[in-house]
Every structure is written in C-alpha cells, then in structure tokens.
Design a protein that fits this description.
Chain A: Keywords: Exonuclease, Hydrolase, Nuclease. Chain A: One of its GO terms (molecular function) is 3'-5' exonuclease activity. Chain A: This is 3'-5' exonuclease. The complex is a heterodimer of chains A (251) and B (625). Chain A has 251 residues and is of the alpha/beta class. Chain A has a single domain, classed as Nucleotidyltransferase, domain 5 (2-Layer Sandwich), CATH 3.30.420.10. Helix content of chain A is 43%, strand content 11%. Chain A has a 5-stranded mixed beta sheet. Chain A is globular. In chain A, 41% of the residues are buried. Chain B is α+β, with helices and mostly antiparallel strands and 625 residues long. Among the domains of chain B are: 122 residues, Jelly Rolls (Sandwich); 101 residues, CBS-domain (Roll), CATH 3.10.580.10; 145 residues, Four Helix Bundle (Hemerythrin (Met), subunit A) (Up-down Bundle). The chains are: A alpha/beta (251), B alpha+beta (625).
Chain lengths: 251, 625
C-alpha cells in the first residue's frame, strides 16, 4: 500500500474509535440478509467474534492492497496480500497474494512504487473471478490494516461495478493506534515562530522502527500485510493486553 | 498454493547456515515460516515444553539458558535456537527469553527435520554438538592444505643414489652427474646390525663447491671427508609439513627419507614447493650469515614478511608456530655464536635453554624471551659466573633488539637464579613437584616447557625425564597445577560488538592469548604431565594424552581443533596489524570478526570451558586416578 499524505490521517488522528464503531456481528447479520452476491452473502453469514472477545482469542487477517493511485473512485486495485494471524503467531506460511487487472491504466508513478507492470496485469484475472478466494481467506477474521480507508474504500469501490454492491468489514487499524499515541498538536505561537514542530510519522516504516521491527522493502502487498501484522503484535505487546476486548480496538 | 513472503526468503538467502541450501530447499524453508513478535523480557520457551519450532532471530536479541539457569548463549539478528530439542526428544532443552523487543521467524519441526535430513551441509552447520561443527571447520582447512595431510613418501620421485664409504669425491661427482641428482648418500654397510648409522652421511652439490673446490682438495679425497655426518632424516610416513620443519630447524636443504632403516630416497627443499617454506628457511639462512647484532636487527622486516606470507598462504597454526620458533631459536643460536666469538670459549660446558612458547614451538610475532642456563656441575660461581653473566647479557640484549622483549618476570639467563648447574636444576624441579608453592607452580608452568637451544642440549632430555617421572607420581602437584590452570577461563561468546562473559557481563575486546590459547596450553600441560609425556608442543602433548585414553572419547580431538582455531584467529589478527603498520598484539575486537569466526570461536571456548570442568573433576586433591 502507499499513501502519500492526502488520505493520511486527518480523520484518524481525531476520531475516538470505539464510540464510532458499530456492533459488527449484528451489522454482519443485517448485511447477510441484504447481500445479493452469494460469495458476499456467505462471507457475512459466517459471522464474527463478539465485541467482548479477548484479543488473544480473535482470529485476524492482515490485509494490504496496492493500487493504481490514491482515488478509490477513479483508481483500481492491482494486487492483494493477506496473512492470517493471531496475537501469538503470524501465519506467514499461509500467506495469499493475487495480482489483479484493474479497469484503469497503470499510472507510472504507482508502478515505480509497487513494481507491478502492464504486462503482469494484462495476464492477471479480474478481481471478480478471485473474489471468492479473497473472501474465504477473510471469513470470520478481523481485518488488520495500516490506514483503513485505503483497503476499505478501494475494496468497496472495486466491488460496486463488478457485483452491483459494496462491502463493509471491521478493521483494526495500526495507523490509527499509532495516531492515538502521537496526536497532532496545534503548535502554539512561539512554537510556530521558533521551531519546526516535528510531527512524529505514523507511516508504516516509521511506526515499525519505533517498536524495533526490522526495515522491510515495502509496497509489495504481501510484505506490507506481514509488516502490518507484526506491527499490531508489537503495539498490543507494548500498549494493550491479551485480554483487552476486541471492541476496544475495532472500527 | 503457497505465496511467498519475499522478505523472509531474502533474509535467509546467502546467510549461514542457509547459504548451502539449494533454491528448492531454501523456498521450502522460507515458505514454512511463521512469525512472532516478543516484547523484551518475554519467555519464548520453557524447559520441557513440547519442541515445535526452530527459531531464527530476525531482529532484537535472545538469551538461551541451560537447564540450571546459567547463560548458554546470547543471540542477535541471524542467530538461531531450538534445534537441540527438535533433534533430540522433541522437548525444549534450552529455554529462551527475549532480552530486547524481538521478531522471531519460526520454522515448524517437520520442515526443519526434512531439510536437516536432506542437506548435509546445512545439518553440519546447525549440528547439535558445537564441537562437531568445529571439527568440520578445522578438517576442511586441513584438507585444503596438502602440506598438512600428505606424507613424505609421496614426494620421493626416485630411489636414493647410494655410494660406499670407501668412495672418493671424484666418484661421488661422477655418480651425481650420471644420475642427474644434487645429492648422494654415503652408506656404511659394515655398520653393526642395530647401529642407526647405516647411512654415514650425505654429500651435496654445495659440499663439492664449499668443501672440495674452494679449499682446493684433491679429487682423490675420501668422500667421508667432505660429507655431512650426523644425518637428520625423516621417516617415510611423516607429514610433509614435519619434513619442512626439520629442514627449518636444522637449516638443511636435503633430507633422506627412511623406511625400516633403509633410505627410500632424498627429498630436497625444492620438492616442497610451497614458497612459504623457502621463505622461512631463507630467513633462518640469513640469520646465520649475519656478522653482528645490527645485522640481525636488520632482518626484522624479513621475519614479519615471512609471518605474513605464511598467514596469507593459509598455513596452519602449527606450521606458523614452528617456523617462528625456528627463527627465534636461530636468533638465539647466532647470538650465542657471536657471544662466544667476543668472549672466548666457555670455561665450562653449558646449555642455553628456551622456555614457554618458543620451546613449545607455538611462537608468534608478539613474544617475550624466557630463557635460562644450565651449567656443567663443575661450575664454580666465583671463577666462572662472570663469563656466563656477560654471555647472558649479550644474548638477552641482542634478543630484545631483535623484537623479543625482556621477560617482565625476570625469567632470563641474566638473572643469577636461573644460571645453575645441572644438579641444582634437577633438585629445583624435584622440589617444585614435591613441595608446590604458589610461586613454584607459576615457575613450573614456564620451566616445564623447555628446550635446549645451544650447547649440551642432551642435558635437557635428562631434565625432561625427571619432570615426566616425578610429576606423574605426584597427585598433589597435579591437583595444584590443575587448580592454577583454571584461573584463566574463556568467555561465553559474542553479542553484537561485545564479548560476553559467563556471568553475562560485556567487554569491548578479548585477549585471545590470555583467554584462549594460554589456558588451553596450561590444561594440556597438566594432562601431559599426568600421563608422563615428554613432548613439549601442545599438539604433540595432546597426541600423547589421547593415546593414554584419560579423556572421554573424542574430547582430545576437540581440544586439538579448539587450539588450532583460536590460534589461527590470533595469528590472523596479528598479521592484519602488521599489514596496517600497527603494533601487533593479542587483543581482538569482536567487530573485526566474521560471523563464521565468532561462531567457531564460541564453539572453541565452549570446548575449553568443558575441558576445564573435566580437569577440575579429574585432578581433585585426594582423588585416585
């Protein structure tokens, strides 16, 4: 995934997460009734762990998508990486990765980031044909992302033209957890005058470095998903507890 | 279908112990990995847990403990643990704990076992026994060096050309020309059976030039007049390297090769193709050509160049130690010749002694002089001592100028205490063994590694026999020596840029002599004395100790490997300093060591540490061996 600041965090730095989050299992029951696509309907119908489940017992899946650009409406998805995980263990051995053909042209700057080229996407399937596999990998799991808006909005927008309906799912957002720790302050007059107030970066690489996690070559969907999963384990090990309730973190 | 995590694959690729794996196995291993983050102070595994994973430290740091809670190892990025349990009874044997925030890559047991069973090099690299791994390291190096593994008879190209003792020099020259050889052996077939001097001597091209033509002797001169008697010979099944050392030590260029007392052939220096041998022989030859101390001092760059060359040509520690000792010995011999030229012949016979590393033939570049004098029993201090005091001062000052610093403990022939008649030496050594004191134990450590350098060297054999017989029969003395040999211990290993001590403390550098080779030599000396060995070189002593079967099976070889590896790292470190124009010493900083060297050094330290524990147990006072 890449995000160059636009979608960054204005929202997430301010949002008190828990109060906004819906009761996800109930929401999924509603969505299961409303969904038309059988794959989507099966995904919702499988349900989710209840909000009071301790984190230690929650099945999760780290997710990352690479895209042709930053606009969920105009741009499309080029690759998806998924890594199932729990608090104890990241099942990198069960990693899944797909390259898909977006319905828009590849943008040159994005190619330099994610490294997926025209010829690769030309041979790749449309998201429509692998949607079942992706949803199966997500079934019953809480999605772990770094910057939820990207993954949520791009998947939602990608599904609409393909199956005539969007998608909703609960996430734990590692970027939002970092933002909470490093809230954006309004610099005071003197501060603005004398100091270049250094914002602590809450991007993936910088956040990982704060927890002593190794530097990975990012912008490959699978690497980013793994990197995000590791970051969540680190955040929880340092700031939460295995018995923290799921609904304290999901959004 | 498995999708690959490139970061994991790339982390493994090219890094030991994965570097030996082919692509198929590498991918199999990398795609089997699961990941876990542990905050500092998290217990990763407990003793007796079911062993399911082989762990690789991706980032952070982990401590591994023995069952009794003492530190076994401290690991950082690229370190691995858990193989013991997986390969034994599938229970965790060494519990582990994160000491920093740590990211672990975990390989499940079935995949680990499959790769382990299918790739021998990988299996060797992660092998359960550290000592086994060191054996592989050292033996691989031995194989690569023909001098160390080939026997002398492989160099013998043709039968020796023989000549009877009754021949003239003309006949000798004619035979050599006909046969196209540079030497003939002079045979005394009349020699009594059992007499070793079946080969009476050797005549070389050079002898014809220097002993016949130059002095203008008649061609009818008997060959016995220009031949070299008192032959230095080598047995057909000795190693090429041993032959090389004989040439060095005796400064000869031809060696008859004997089998069952008959000459099989003659090997010449040129047969030993390695340049390094010629180089050190060249230095020895130059030493004997110098006419004053200034000339000897001028050879110092040659000595250093010879040392550096042997290191770059991958000579092993024994070859280098012997070559440096031969050079040191030659300096002493030449200085004594010069001293006798200056002071006149000695009033009574004497023997000049070398002790310590030179006697053990384990000398390197940084060394001090330990020496002493044995005098004839007719020695009368009032009449003779002035001569020997002057002789000792001449040699000692000369050695100091040639780079062999004065012994800070005063163990030098310049000290009247260490200029004694043979009978006094015998009594002193016997006293040290019968009534050990802290001081005499320290002396024994130095003096019991002794070698005759000049003069009546046969006296030294008598002294060695006294030591060997008495020490073996003195459990109390052995117990005291063993206790002394435990005073210096090796560190545990390395962590980042630090040396880790057994109690977990850190230091910046390690003195490889004080913490490695010296305690090893001390330990080997105790065992050698206990089995009555008269050898002096540590490797030869170990051979005697192994033959005497007092160590658990295989441990003797482990000690050989440990000594070899620590020595060679120490040697290389000195060569690097020389090349950089720095003063070489024995101190090594971990950041100058490769990952491989750190690992092998740690293995060697562990062997030494275990051997010290065994020694402590074996030589307990009162224990009947």
């Amino acid at each position: 995934m890449f995000y160059l600041g636009k979608l960054d965090d204005k929202e997430s730095r301010r949002t008190p997460r828990a109060r906004r989050a819906p009761d996800w299992p109930a929401r999924f029951a509603e969505l299961a009734d409303a969904a038309h696509d059988p794959r989507l309907r099966a995904y919702y119908a499988a349900g989710l762990p209840a909000g009071d489940t301790p984190l230690a017992e929650v099945p999760m899946v780290a997710l990352d998508v690479e895209t042709t650009g930053l606009d969920p409406v105009r741009d499309g998805i080029v690759s998806i990486g998924l890594v199932p995980m729990t608090l104890e263990r990241i099942h990198a051995s069960a990693s899944r990765h797909w390259i898909v053909r977006p319905r828009v042209r590849l943008d040159e700057t994005s190619v330099t980031l994610h490294g997926i080229t025209d010829s690769q996407v030309e041979e790749a399937p449309d998201l429509q044909s692998i949607l079942g596999e992706v949803l199966e990998a997500m079934v019953g799991r809480i999605v772990v992302v770094h910057c939820r808006d990207i993954e949520r909005q791009f998947l939602d927008q990608a599904l609409k033209p393909r199956i005539g309906e969007g998608i909703e799912f609960p996430t734990i957002d590692t970027m939002a957890l970092e933002a909470e720790l490093h809230p954006r302050r309004r610099p005071g007059f003197f501060a603005r005058l004398f100091a270049r107030t250094e914002q602590v970066s809450i991007r993936l690489a910088a956040s990982r470095a704060r927890y002593g996690l190794p530097r990975y070559g990012l912008h490959h969907a699978l690497t980013d998903a793994l990197a995000t999963g590791e970051l969540l384990q680190a955040q929880i090990a340092h700031r939460y507890a295995p018995d923290t309730r799921l609904d304290a973190l999901w959004t | 279908m498995k999708d690959e995590q490139l970061e994991i694959l790339e982390f493994f690729r090219g890094r030991p112990p994965f570097d030996s794996l082919d692509e198929t196995w590498l991918h199999k291993l990398a795609t089997s990995v699961d990941v876990r983050y542990c905050r500092a102070d998290t217990q990763i595994s407990e003793f007796g847990d079911e062993a399911q994973w082989w762990y690789i430290v991706r980032s952070g740091a982990v401590e591994v403990y023995r069952r009794n809670g003492t530190l076994y190892n401290r690991l950082t990025e690229g370190g691995y643990f858990g193989e013991f349990g997986l390969l034994r009874n599938k229970r965790v044997r060494f519990p582990a704990r994160a000491i920093e925030d740590t990211l672990l890559y975990m390989v499940p047991e079935p995949v680990f076992s499959e790769v382990f069973d299918n790739d021998e090099t990988f299996a060797d690299a992660v092998e359960i026994e550290d000592r086994t791994r060191l054996r592989h390291v050292v033996s691989r190096k031995e194989d690569a060096n023909q001098l160390m593994s080939a026997t002398v008879d492989t160099l013998v190209g043709r039968e020796a050309v023989l000549l009877d003792v009754s021949a003239t020099v003309r006949e000798a020259a004619q035979r050599m020309t006909e046969e196209g050889v540079s030497s003939v052996l002079v045979m005394d077939e009349e020699a009594a059976p059992g007499d070793l001097a079946l080969v009476a001597g050797i005549v070389t091209d050079r002898d014809l030039r220097t002993r016949l033509v130059a002095p203008g002797l008649s061609y009818d001169t008997p060959v016995t007049e220009i031949m070299s008697g008192d032959l230095v010979t080598v047995d057909h099944n000795q190693l090429v390297f041993e032959a090389m050392m004989l040439m060095l030590r005796h400064n000869v260029h031809h060696l008859p090769v004997m089998r069952h007392r008959r000459p099989l052939g003659v090997i010449a220096l040129s047969d030993i193709i390695h340049y390094e041998s010629r180089n050190s022989l060249f230095v020895v030859g130059s030493i004997f050509r110098q006419t004053d101390v200034d000339g000897l001092v001028g050879l110092l760059p040659d000595v250093h160049a010879c040392f550096t060359r042997m290191v770059t040509e991958d000579a092993n520690s024994r070859m280098i130690g012997s070559a440096m000792a031969a050079i040191g010995r030659s300096f002493k011999q030449r200085l004594l010749e010069l001293a006798e030229e200056k002071l006149g012949p000695p009033p009574v016979p004497y023997c000049f002694l070398a002790m310590g590393s030179m006697a053990r033939q384990e000398q390197l570049i940084v060394t001090d002089q330990d020496n002493a004098l044995i005098l004839d029993d007719r020695f009368d201090p009032a009449v003779h001592d002035a001569y020997f005091a002057e002789l000792a001062a001449f040699v000692s000052d000369g050695l100091a100028r040639c780079g062999y610093t004065y012994c800070s403990g005063g163990i030098m022939a310049t000290n009247p205490r260490w200029r004694q008649p043979l009978a006094v030496w015998k009594r002193t050594f016997a006293d040290w063994i019968d009534k050990p004191t802290p001081e005499s134990l320290l002396n024994a450590n130095i003096f019991f590694d002794l070698e005759g350098v000049w003069g009546k060297t046969e006296w030294v054999d008598a002294l060695r026999r006294v030591i060997a017989q008495k020490a073996q029969a003195s459990p109390r003395f052995l117990a005291c020596m063993a206790r002394n040999a435990l005073l210096r211990t090796p560190p545990l290993g390395f962590f980042k840029d630090f040396v880790v001590e057994a109690d977990g403390r850190h230091s910046r550098a390690i003195n490889l002599k004080r913490r490695g080779t010296a305690p090893l030599a001390d330990l080997v000396r105790v065992h050698a004395l206990a089995v009555g060995s008269i050898s002096v070189n540590s490797f030869e002593r170990l051979r005697d100790v192994i033959d005497a079967s007092i160590l658990p099976l295989g441990r003797g070889q482990d000690l050989v490997d440990a000594l070899e590896f620590i020595s060679i790292v120490r040697i290389r470190n000195q060569a690097v300093s020389l090349a950089a124009g720095e003063e070489p010493d024995n101190s090594v900083e971990p950041d100058t060591l490769s990952e491989f060297e750190r690992k092998s050094l740690r293995d060697a330290f562990l062997i030494l540490s275990n051997a010290q524990k065994f020694m402590k147990y074996r030589y307990q006072p009162g224990r009947v061996n």
